[in-house]
Model the fold of this input.
Amino acid sequence: MISFSVDKSEFLKHIFYCVGVVDTRSTMLVLSHVFLEARDDRVYISSTDLESSMYSSFPAKINNDGSICISGKKLFDVVEKLPDEKINVSLTTDSQIEISFSTGKTKIKTLPGEDFPQVPKPQDFVYRTIKSETLTNIILKTAYCVSNDEMRKNLTGVYFDLSQPGKIKAISTDGHRMSLVQEEIENSISESFILPKKATNEIRKFIKESESVKIGVGKSFFICDNGQTSILSRLIDIKFPDYTQVVPNNTNNSFKVNREKLLKTLQRVGVVLSEKTKGAKIIISDDKIEIRSLSDTGESAEVLDKSKSTQNIEVGFNVKYLIDALLSFESDEVFVSINDEVSPACIFSDETNQEKQKAIIMPMRV
Amino acid sequence: MRDYIALIDCNNFYASCERVFDPHLKNKPVVVLSNNDGCIIARSNEAKTLGIKMGEPYFKCKNLIKQENVKVFSSNYTLYADMSNRVMNIVKEHFVNTEVYSIDEAFISFPSENLSEIENRFIKLRDKIAKWTGIPVSIGVAPTKTLAKVASKIAKKNSGVFSLFDKTTRNKILKELPIGSVWGIGRRLNKRFIRLGISNAYQLSTMDHKHVKDLTNINILRTAIELGGIKCIDIDSQPSNKKQITTSRAFGKTVTDIKFLEEAVSVYVSRAAEKLRIQNSKCSIITVALSTNRFDEKNTHKFLFMTESLESSTSSTQELISIAIKLLKRIFHEGFMYKKAHIFLSGLEDSKFKQYSFKDNIKDIKQQDKLMKAFDKINKTFGSDTMKYANTGISRDWFMKRERRSNRYTTNWNEILKINL
Done:
């Protein structure tokens, strides 16, 4: 019967990595559980929703080998509230897991370890190494544009395009806005795939632990491994729309603006807007931008300095979309290009290397 | 000054609309049938006296109808909607704070100091509506919406206007009012209250508030408080837009040919898109469904449907018809006897704040919006279907049965009332 001792914070960290994958809505009760296995001086913890599976392991003092399934959420809630100290985890004779610590103990009901579905791990992966910081950066800058519309499945993930040697491009869109990021990577194999949103969210949690991670793409599957923790995710097997068609070719009519000031202005102006009236009017003149919002609850207007541009344009945008895009940039200043009232706005941080990061947003009728 | 509530309720509305244009029917039994001439949905007082029940299938009471020489009409919603508008416009002329609650009911909220004057004011309004439209109305006046409902029921049986301000009278009336007749108490709740020994409205009004909420929900608690004369439900003079638009109709006969189904789906989409534009919305999700006759004992009931999420929201009839026909072709199964088609439009957003998508050609959308505006204007001015898409068909053999429909006297020039002198 499984029994081990472990440092609370170490245990909690690995439960945290796995708990995001458990499926609490499934008719299969075991999918809301994490699988714990103790052997060879390590504890192995895994979870799956049959689309994504998370595997993690950490060293521990093993008193007895064994395996068990425990409700992921319950286990996380219990361990999170324990004092920072060594804890003992063991299976009791009545099939409950007992977590004991200096001042008490908690028992949780379990399912047998054999009930946990064994997701076969494909072996045909071609691996490459990527800096954790680079992958985190890509995910953070694209996650906000991923669609939640399950009826348009190909938009519910981040599209990774590795067709150019030495480069990794990531694109996400919900049909109204798009985010494009390009980073350098040691890569010689040309491929592209759509990684589901859930997998990108879970990857972010554990990759910061190491300087670099191995990513691999096999037939219909993706794997990301940092040595201690790994995620295996099924890819979205539908064609991603041709994103190059919506990227504006002409960004000549762009202007430079302080990102932080524009962001704060939009946040202030957006306060009076409601779920129904999400749009604000942007009036671009010589060296000023005026942003106006109007709704049933009130109105707001602000003027902001910008670099000189030639065209005077009045166009509406969803304020939340602009805020989300600006939050994804890190630079002090951004370039904004709006060609006319019927074309998308393009935001980029590096005038000479626009491909590095771009946000494209369609206008809104206001 | 205190605000009071009045409920203007048109008496036997559909039957009354038919009588307006055929005065011979005065004091004679009249009934109106549902779509496809299926069931009785409106009865004049004379028809009620004969024992014809609400919702009764027409074929079941055909003999009685023939024997008693009851005049039968198919439903004529175009006429009823127009007559309703006329009644509501008169009410709105007199009272700013009006909530059109249904096709034949309107709540109004008004301030008054002099209770004795209120009844006279509403007697004048009742007479004006009768004189200008020919529709008889009953008016119930009370401190709350729920009590106004009670008062309008009493008004129907009396002179047409009844006010319920006096506490003693109110309690006496509520004691005689069965719990199931209270506004908001449905069949299931009625049974539950009776099981608990609560059989009349007075008992509900005097119940402990916490007990009512524990037994039911916040809405019934509001009803109970309102029965006690305290206002909880306010007038909603600007009802919010619908979150889903549905057009669902049974065919006049079973349909097996996809050509007719395409026509039917196109007609229903046209109606749904029109409703969408009336409330200034665009939809981003469309569902098309087909169903077979659920009363057919020989074949199992089928309900086939498919949904599409649109890349860009739209209210264009043309665009929606083409998507709906594409979905129809996917769900259609040869050999089934289809009885009904359904269109559901959801994911509605305000047209004034349309978020464009990458797929959109914004100039084309603006053009399409103008076209639809002109389309609606023509149909509003010259009658429904003056302009229509060719997919909607000409003869529409599948269309619902309305064999006894009266003319659309007020909305169609070709059907205007003719007087032979």
About this structure: The radius of gyration of chain A is 24 Å.
